[in-house]
Fold these 4 entries.
Entry 1:
Amino acid sequence: MEQLFVLFDSIKVLSPELRAYIKSILVSRSVKKKEILLKEGQVARHIYFIEKGLVRSYRFKKGKERTSWFMKENDVCVSILSFFLQTPARETIEALEDCVIYYITYEELQKAYELFPEFNLHGRVILELYYQLSEKRNEMREMSTLGRFEFLMERQPELMGRVSQKLLASYLNMEPETFSHQKSIFTHKKGKNGSDQGIEP
């Protein structure tokens, strides 16, 4: 829980009253690997903070499963449109590892904004960050195949050791075979440049 308050305080230090209120409404939950937090068609009732573990969002496009994003420790996790509009989700959120999460409901968040107007700043900043990440991912998907792979290695290299190649390929909108090829190119390129930061095969 403390890491969540580190996040809040990095935006603006919470008042003791607001801190106590958030602690009183936060719920802790252990989630097993492959457990579904939100299923497509359901209305997102909760916004999550991941204390431990890794989750992903995916949806089906042209009959194929496409991973939209990954979130890990110290990230806020939510189906944005479904949660804030309280409409059916167009995505599914799945745990890729055993996780420990904290969450509050939509109604509790709105009440916190009403009771503590200063908390609106925290909500706005986190939402802005979420949309910036979303925009970066959209830009990534317009890049070349190698550009998409380099985006992954520059921004989320830790996923290489935690996520299957099949899901990473889905995230980068390429076939697993193409992913393997780009990985080889990237590794060779790093080695050629004399870098010791290349990925292990």
Entry 2:
Amino acid sequence: MSTASRLAGFGTALALVFGGSWALGTAIGPAAPPTPAHGTAHEGHDAAVPEPDAANPAGPTSTAAGYRMVLDQSAAPGELAFTVTGPDGRPVAGYAVTPSRPVQVVVVRSDGTGYQHLQPRFGGDAVWRTPLTLAAPGVYRAITDVTPAGGPRLTLSTDLFVPGPVMPAVANPGRVWQAGGYQVRLDGDLVPGTPSQVFATVTKDGVAATDLQPQLGAFGQLVALRSPDLAVLDVHTDGVEAAPTARSGPGVAFVVDIPTAGTYRLFFDFRHAGAVHTAEFTVPTRVDR
């Protein structure tokens, strides 16, 4: 059974920012849909999606400006495949892309776990394909940022469902991530109603990592989600594109627009020694006394 045929649509919102400049959003509901009969794939629903505003940011649905993200039924096992159809209902055959801004996809489960940052490849059949493994049952959201040739910049999404008993995860507040000899510390307060500066500092085996490599034109990418609705946050960097041979570190700075008080999930992607790593944080907003 293919990955696409095992995944079924559900939910409404998730959010993210790529490279500090790509803002995406949507939300995933708390209840799981029934397992689809005969493994049939279903597209995400667009119902009850509020208009975005500063205090309650919303994000992409499967349809925007007449364009739609559609799961492709030809997906092989362990693969996510999709097309973007235009207002005429036909698959879009051309896109505006650059080496530092390729088409990207983020997949996250409704409880904010299972984060994956993917770069699909475009085929002559107008289908985007990328390897994807969803190990845990639950509802996931796949979101892409695309600009059809001659069309508008779009954030589109579709829902994925892996059948089975769901074990929701609870992320405890934490500003330090450690794995494989790396440690990443996140400093800076998240202050509601104002842009908040945060700093990710990377060490490897206790030594400051001063040779971070560019990843899609930046020395780090921050994905920021509001819990529990996973609404989008705007994240900014200095806007200067790093040369491929440039190196930096150990600190990477971002400015995050915090719309409301609450708890936020932040994912920091960084490249070091030729590999991309993802640090995860759960941070509540600052409480002034």
Entry 3:
Amino acid sequence: MRRGQNAGFTLIEILISIAIFTLIFSYIFSVMTTTLDTGKMVEEKMDLDQIGRFTIKRITHDLLSATTLPLSGRGRFVGRSAVYSGFSMDEFHFTAFTRLHFGNRPRLDQSEIGYFFNRGDAESIEFMRRESDSIKDQVDKGGIAFAITTHVKELKIRYLGKKEYQGWLENWNSEDTATAGFPKAVSIELILTDGKRENFYSTVVVLEEYGKV
């Protein structure tokens, strides 16, 4: 028997149509979710890499300007090895020529620069950069500090001694007899993490002023 011209859809046809639309919608939603997750993952990876590259570049730039005063020879370089929760979190401070100046103080050519960790919050350890536009006896004090990132998992700094037998040292103090003056070079090993991935960066910076005291 033929269906009339005004006959509607049967219940089975409606259920089949709903099932087809559900499958299509589920597929589209799955593709969209995967695309969004992939995009977010790529963005997070790029953000972490950008932070790592900036940090290495900033430290390298500062170390290349590390120096004592040309006439008086005044200046210091201090590096301390430290371990926190099983990971190296070293710090170092030195005098350098720099273009950064603060406030209304005189525009001096030399300043103190330091990199260290602020461990006030165990869940969010901040990697800090400090700069002071006045030279003091304590090269690791004073000035203005700001946080670079909270993604540092490990920072390992080593210093190449001026004497052949010294090799790479874990600590440095320009006022000690064994490590007087500035090191020949500084080795930097940096690991960043965002909880999902880790990025490793390393470089060796040769200091131009290591021969001066």
Entry 4:
Amino acid sequence: MPGQSSWINDVTEETFEELVIRQSFERPVIVDFWAKWCGPCKTLTPILEKLVNEKNGAVALAKIDVDANQLLAQDFGIQSIPAVRIILQGQLIGQFNGAIPETQLRQLFDKLAPKAGKPSQSKPAPKKPLDPAEAEKLYRQQIDEDPSNEIARIELARLLVEQDRTEELEDLLSPIGAAGENGAEAAKLRGIVALRALAKELPDEATIAKQLQREPNNPELLYAMGCRLASKAQYQQALDTLLRAAELDRKLGESKVRNAMVQIFYVIGTRSETADQYRKRLTQLLY
């Protein structure tokens, strides 16, 4: 069995928040549900460990013994093992059950961290000119010359987001892995766009404010106001409002509120002091 590393951890109900949820804001976390008596687990787990070590910190592995951590297994709906769940930025992004071949697992890991362990060969993007049209032209030229230039991709994506032109966003950002500074910048831009999209589906702020005067403890209205505040970059006030909505309606907190708060975490920095504080408060409220 491959040796343990700092990216491979045995996780319990007490350490789940730190080693899975918080860590997932730095890198994808593969959560491996297993038990000592499970034969297929003895096949799957060593392969997962090997692939995680190959990724050199771009992916983490959290091993959960279902016999010792039955509440976690129940929370994830685990009915048979081995079972794998993939967490990124605090959200479930993938899953599978049973021991699957190493070739399939390797493909999965390459999608999660396509450039793990490889130093960037990207040429730096040019300084941003004052004219947005000229900047866009130069960034596109950089990308044409070197499609692996992540900095140029991010700068072009940022420019387009500023202009509310987001049709190309995923095409620009999808080649960038989740890890590192570039991954964080890509997540930030996606978060900004996601918060705008949430707000567009809701009434305007003035209408929501009037309704809240009549129903100050209405969780749906508080959620709507939180989304509106976030779309205006009033993140602290938005987080307070969203957390209040979750306190009043746990089911809403587990779904729409949690999603909105995660998008804010992307924007303000997933490991920022504010994100850590509100993530902990939300987790304590919901789990």
